[in-house]
Amino acid sequence: MRLSKETTCIFTKRGVSYFSRRVPTDLRNHCNRDRIVISLKMTSRIPPKNGQNPSP
Question: Could you tell me the CA-to-CA distances from 56 to 8, 9, 15, 31, 43 in Å, in that order?
Fold first, then answer.
């Protein structure tokens, strides 16, 4: 699937990339969370946009 917009649901924390999405309000009773965050288990040697240093 190709996205037409820039993806803002992927962020980097301590050099590891994560995927994050909000849970729709009608499904929050089943999930008990407002947001789901999944580690993509990949690191990047390219510095992230938010200015954090990548892991060595």
Answer: 25, 24, 9, 35, 9
